[in-house]
Every structure is written in structure tokens, then in C-alpha cells.
Design brief:
With 561 residues, this protein is an alpha/beta fold. It folds into two domains: 228 residues, Aldehyde Dehydrogenase, Chain A, domain 1 (3-Layer(aba) Sandwich), CATH 3.40.605; 186 residues, Aldehyde Dehydrogenase, Chain A, domain 2. 42% of the residues lie in helices and 16% in strands. α2 runs antiparallel to α6. It is globular and about 65 Å long. It starts with a helix and ends with a helix.
Length: 561
């Protein structure tokens, strides 16, 4: 560890922090637009580096994952945030669509519709809509006063933020930094995770102008470097995307001393720390009149949520919650097994994956392995019939961080009774509050009426997505991404704070996204889409510079799965 170099980097940031905080919006917008353009320029080279590290063959459609989770979402969110900053410059606040805000009659919760935003969104995501639900105290009358809080300050003071990057998805670290820079007005030190520090040169190229001006610095190395920077007197705030264990080590320390500090709520890190720390992501399947094609589609949807990126995602499918008396339960589980059997196996590139798999299998002899186990390659694993009464089961309390998913069953006299029980079970017994999915047939939703939205209102998750992968809440940008509010340092679970959130809501409670039960053509993020790489590469161009002339190619490739 080169402490002298780290100290010099922090000193540069301290010298520029106030200048950055008070920089005219025109200049910030120009820099952010340059980040979008640079993201497009490095996309192909960055993806090639990622697939080599993750063992994805260059001719595989799965190359598309690295476009979608990297330059596509990065370009989109930076572009949308730049648009919001244009609104702030002209109007003082980001501008919501006309008629976008409503209030729930039952509890007075304010809800803002944020997606689709324009005709291109409607064309590419037909049938999808997204809302951001606000915390108590926000009203339709004062919502504008809870947007873009940093930019309501007259002469803001600057701060130095340390961002500890995630090791799994390429866009996480850069977008966490964008949040600190452009939404919160802080200069940034980005420390790369050793698992994917090969991304460093590309990130540095994307943010080259901000680095040259002294608003961004980067660092490499292991936990010792991270700890040194966290404790550095020149760092004002810390943001981490990682595990709750890493968070606790940073805040309280390790070993017996760390445990003692946590028990006594005596943190060794007293700076503000925000975080996104994962989740045992539940999927609630509400019984209904599903056709065979709908069951197969949803089985592929669930399988995608585990298989994407080899299972190394904080929003991967971890716990399937079904009705114990559902007549189609067996058919759905068979369709899910078939989907896993057809899904490509992946390199277990994230350290410790084999040991984590062994822990889950050792605890559950009924675990089903799908696919061959080979050196460096793990099978997809389903653990069926986990006892819901054993609330301390590893499947409910530990994020596996590999290709393992559990399944449990709950009673209920009808769909509504089951849904209420499932929501209560997820809130009370399943670890984490980051994201959850509800699979529900539209006829069943109609029968449930207001009770369906009431169930969503009861869910203590930062993102609740109907019929699709909650990763959409990460990717759309206008939505928020982060834990449900209310966690403390002693009980951190999925973290504190949100990112993305390009409308810059100051007090969001959750994002809710509604999508069709079955979409045609197949969504390009499904691991079964044979032209995912083609669609994803074109989406880089669309998100960097939206144009109706690019749309036909996207539709053509997407419609040929």
C-alpha cells in the first residue's frame, strides 16, 4: 500500500471539493454528458475485458450481460441525470410528467409515476410502468421541496466521498460515484474491488475530464487500502456496495473487538456511511389461472434471475415462496428445473463460491443440482421445500452469493390470504429489504382489487416488481435503488440510502414496477435470448443518444430470440 500516493489523492480532492460543490450547473452538465459519450466509446473494449475475466466465450449471447450491466445502464442513468440537472437549472427542480403524482386514499402515501418517460420508453418497454413511493411526511403539496435537495442550497460546502466499488457488475462503482458527484455534490475517491479492478482503466477513461480537474481519484488494492481510506481524516463520507459483513467490519471492526463494539453501538467509523448490501431476494408466486406458456415464461424469468452473472448479483433469485395448495405448483417447479437445465453453466469467478455452495447443500440433503460440477464451474442448485417454520434456516437468513435458490410453501385459503401471509413472511423471516418480486396473473390482480396494491404497500422492500426481475429498478434510472428505509448501523441488513433516482427524490420509500405477465418477444435480458448480445450492443447507442432510427434494429434483433 502506497500511503503517500493515497494521501496526495485525498489532498487534491480536499482542495477541489468546494469548487465542485459550487460549480455552475452548465459546467456539471457538460461534464456529465461527456461521461455518457465516453461510456459509449469504451463499451466494446470494457466488455471484452469483462468476458475474459468471467470466462464468457466471445461468441456467446451472454456477452450481452456485460453490455446491459455495464455501458447500457451507465449511459442511460448518466443521460437521464443530466436531463434532470437541465430541469434544475431552468425550473429549480426535476420536472415530473403532467398528472404523474397521486396519493393513496388508504394511508396518504404519495406516489410519483416516473416511467415510461417518452415514446421510446413506451416502444421498448411496452406494458411496463414504474412508480416511486414516498416516505411519510411527503405530500403532493410539498413533493417539490423533497427533490434535488443539494441544489436548493445557496452556497453549499463540499465534501470528500469514498466509494468502495462492488466486484460483480461493471456499472455499480461508477454509478455510485455519479450519485455522490452529481446528486450530492461531493468529490470522489473510487476504490476498485480486487475482483474486477481490470475495469479501472476504462472507468478512468470515462471520467478523464473529472480526474484531470481534480474532482475524481481512483485507488486499487485490498481491504487494507479500503480501511486506510475509510479512516483517513480527509475523507468525509463513505459509500459501499458489498456485503453486510464488510460493512460491519468497516463500521465496528473485526473479531471480538468488532463484536463488542457492535453490541455496544460504539462504531469505530463515525462518518456518515451509505450502503447497498444485498438481500435474500424473495419471489412470491400468487396462484392463478396460468397457461402452460405463461408458466414456462415465468420459469425462464426466475431462472434468469439466478443465472445472470453466474448468480453473483445482490438481486438474484434466492427464495421462491409458493402456495402449498397451488394446483400448478408441480408443473411450475418442473418448468423451472427445465429452464435451469437449458441455462448455460458459468465460471464461478467470485472468490468463495464453492465454499458457500457447500454450506447450503450440507444444511439441506434435498438440494437438487442441475448441471455438471466441474473445476471452476458449479451446478445450478434448487433447495425445495424449505420449512417456513424454521425461520433461522440458512436459506432465509444468508445470501448465498452463488447459483443457489431455495423454495418454501405457505398456506392460504385463497390467493388474497396467501399473498398477505407471503408478504408477512418475507417482511419478518427473510433477511434483507433490497428487492422482491410478485408474480401474479392479471385476472388474479383484478380479483384482488385494492388488496393487491395494499399488499405492495405492506412490503418492506426498496424495490417491488410485479412479474419481472427487480433488476429493472436498478437499470431504469428514474427509479430508486437501495434498501427500504429505517435500518441502523447495528441492524444494517440491506443498507442505508439510495442511488440512481435521477429525479433526485429526497425521501423515497420504495420503487414499484408493474410489467406484463408474459412479454413477446422475449426480454433481451433473459439468459435464453439467443441475440442478447446484438440487442445489448445496439442499446449502448440508444441510451447514449436516443433516436427513433435506432429502434428498428433493436426490435428486429429482440424479436428473433
Amino acid at each position: 500500500m502506497n500511503r503517500e500516493a493515497l494521501d496526495k489523492s485525498i489532498e487534491v480532492l480536499r482542495q477541489t471539493k468546494d469548487r465542485w460543490a459550487r460549480m455552475p450547473l452548465t459546467d456539471k452538465i457538460e461534464l456529465l454528458r461527456k461521461v455518457v459519450e465516453n461510456t459509449r466509446k469504451v463499451a466494446d473494449r470494457q466488455v471484452q475485458a469483462a468476458i475474459q475475466a468471467k470466462g464468457i466465450p466471445p461468441d456467446s449471447p451472454l456477452v450481452g450481460e456485460e453490455y446491459l450491466g455495464g455501458p447500457v445502464v451507465q449511459a442511460r442513468i448518466c443521460r437521464l441525470l443530466a436531463d434532470s440537472l437541465e430541469d434544475v437549472m431552468r425550473h429549480g427542480r426535476p420536472q415530473l410528467p403532467e398528472g404523474a403524482v397521486r396519493t393513496r386514499a388508504k394511508d396518504g402515501q404519495v406516489i410519483a409515476r416516473v416511467f415510461p418517460g417518452d415514446y421510446l420508453d413506451r416502444a421498448m418497454y411496452a406494458g411496463f410502468r414504474a412508480e416511486v413511493w414516498m416516505q411519510p411526511g411527503v405530500t403532493e403539496a410539498n413533493l417539490r421541496d423533497h427533490m434535488a435537495g443539494f441544489y436548493r442550497q445557496h452556497a453549499p460546502e463540499g465534501a470528500v466521498a469514498l466509494v468502495l466499488g462492488a466486484g460483480n457488475v461493471a456499472s455499480i462503482g461508477p454509478l455510485d460515484m455519479v450519485q455522490k458527484l452529481f446528486a450530492e455534490g461531493q468529490v470522489c475517491m473510487l476504490k476498485f474491488n480486487p475482483v474486477n479492478d481490470y475495469l479501472g482503466p476504462f472507468v478512468e477513461e470515462v471520467f478523464a475530464d473529472l480526474i484531470a480537474a481534480g474532482y475524481v481519484r481512483t485507488a486499487y488494492g485490498g481491504a487494507d487500502v479500503g480501511d486506510y481510506l475509510c479512516q483517513h481524516p480527509g475523507v468525509d463520507e463513505v459509500h459501499i456496495t458489498g456485503s453486510d459483513k464488510t460493512h460491519d467490519a468497516i463500521v465496528f471492526g473485526v473479531g471480538a473487538e468488532g463484536a463488542k463494539r457492535k453490541a455496544e453501538n460504539d462504531p469505530r467509523l463515525t462518518k456518515r456511511i451509505t450502503s447497498e448490501l444485498g438481500n435474500v431476494s424473495p419471489i412470491i408466486v400468487v396462484p392463478g389461472p396460468y397457461s402452460k406458456a405463461e408458466l414456462v415464461f415465468q420459469a425462464e424469468n426466475v431462472a434468469t434471475q439466478l443465472c445472470n452473472n453466474g448468480g453473483f448479483n445482490c438481486n438474484a433469485a434466492r427464495m421462491l415462496v409458493v402456495h402449498e395448495g397451488w394446483s400448478q405448483r408441480g408443473a411450475f417447479m418442473d418448468a423451472l428445473r427445465s429452464a435451469f437445465a437449458r441455462a448455460p453453466q458459468r465460471k464461478a469467478y467470485y472468490p468463495g463460491a464453492e465454499e458457500r455452495l457447500e454450506r447450503f447443500v450440507a444444511a439441506h440433503p434435498q438440494a437438487e443440482s442441475i448441471g455438471a460440477r466441474k473445476p471452476g464451474v458449479l451446478p445450478w442448485t434448487i433447495i425445495p421445500n424449505v420449512d417456513p417454520k424454521n425461520v433461522d434456516d440458512i436459506c432465509f437468513k444468508v445470501e448465498s452469493w452463488c447459483g443457489v435458490m431455495g423454495q418454501t410453501a405457505l398456506p392460504g385459503k385463497d390467493a388474497g390470504d396467501f399473498l398477505r401471509a407471503a408478504v408477512r413472511f418475507c417482511n419478518e423471516s427473510v433477511w434483507g429489504t433490497l428487492s422482491a418480486e410478485i408474480i401474479c396473473h392479471p385476472k388474479t390482480q383484478a380479483e384482488l382489487g385494492e388488496a393487491f396494491e395494499d399488499a405492495i404497500a405492506e412490503m418492506r422492500y426498496g424495490a417491488v416488481v410485479v412479474n419481472h426481475w427487480p433488476a429493472l429498478a436498478y437499470a431504469l434510472g428514474v427509479t430508486t435503488w437501495g434498501a427500504y428505509p429505517g435500518h441502523t448501523l447495528q441492524d444494517i441488513q440491506s443498507g442505508i440510502g439510495v442511488v440512481h433516482n435521477t429525479y433526485m427524490f429526497d425521501k423515497p420509500a420504495k420503487t414499484v414496477i408493474y410489467g406484463p405477465l408474459r412479454t413477446r418477444p422475449m426480454p433481451p435480458w433473459f439468459v435464453f435470448h439467443r441475440r442478447m448480445h446484438k440487442v445489448a450492443r445496439t442499446l449502448v447507442e440508444m441510451e447514449a443518444a436516443p433516436s427513433p432510427f435506432i429502434l428498428p434494429k433493436i426490435i428486429w434483433d429482440a424479436a428473433r430470440p
